[in-house]
Amino acid sequence: MAEWQVELSWTCAGCKSKVLGRHTTCTTCGKPKENEEYEMPADVAEAAPVTDPALLALARAGENWRCAYCASDRRAGDGSCARCGAGRQSAPAPVAAAAAPRPRSRAGVVVAVAVAAALGVVGVGVALAAAQGGARREIVVRHGDETRRTVKVAKVTWEYVVAVDAWQLQPREGFSDTVPAGAVEVRSLGEREHHQEEVPDGFRTESYTVEVPDGFRSESYTVEVPDGFRSESYTERVACGQDCTTRPQTCRRECTNGKNGFANCRDVCTGGGQSCTPRYCNESRTRQIPKTRTETRTRQIPKTRTETRTREVPKTKRVPRFAPFASWKEWGWSEVRTLREAGEGGVTRWPDASLAPDDGGPARERARKSQVYRVTFEDGRGARYDYSPASEAELAALANRTDELRIRIAPTVSPLP
Description:
disordered C terminus, 3-stranded antiparallel β-sheet, flat, mainly beta, 7-stranded mixed β-sheet, 3 helices
């Protein structure tokens, strides 16, 4: 694409005169061009292209450069400043920037904040610990739906049970292979049925049916078989040329500031040429279509019949098996008496369970203890709730309560906090 140059202008900062771009000093007052910007013509389409060889050399030489000492504009081809004589590469030494003041350390502030935060956390922890230490134990009662009630203690009951076992000879019976090693007074009681066993007991006749081949039967069926071809006419759309339209062309002139008093210009065009689409026509054609005909055929289908047969099936019977049986005695614990003590209130006592003295012989006694504590609460509506304290101390503490207290009613008993 062809390019050309047009001359720009600049406005002198001293006398405000319009100066052609070919000049680097004002033609009116003589002031050198410094920071003045080059200006495009009002209508670049009407601007005359540069044809003078000397001006074309200036336009194509490249951007101007600015003197580092006097700030005047110089041509790309100038090796030194015509105003002050400074070379193109010369530049004054940069002034060292003053060192930025060092920010004052805030370590003391950070430490102070950290200490304050730590003290705040410690203070909160102590407060929580004190609150938890002073909180009362929650009583959970299994009764109905989850809720809380204000109640009073209506009744306190307790029961202590002492079961006394004696180590003594106890009579036993069983099969001889179960007699323990330490048994005494072992006596045979003959044989007794130990178990029953399944044993063969001949055979029995069983009837069953089976399907067996019984010849064939003829079956008719139809099938489609080829029967030549038939001609068929049809229409098909085929390409038969193009339909074209001419696109209009639009052009605009673009100019770029060369920063040397001249601008590089070119015409940028869009559109033009043709836009074509395929043209389709209907064309009649023929094709061969396969034909078929229906043909009746026969085939042989296997037949079966049901036949009754018999077979011998093994039989079994249950036969008792006997084993030696015996009686004996062996040492063991057995409950000989049970003592109970029950009452109301917070004062409890165990029943007197005096055990036989241990004389060094095999006979001796032992005691097994168990207890049941129950506290009945009653709310202002007369509803009662049963609770089982975990210890004698808890029972006594609740028995001495005469004021109101809060309990949690839960469908299932949950652990106390």
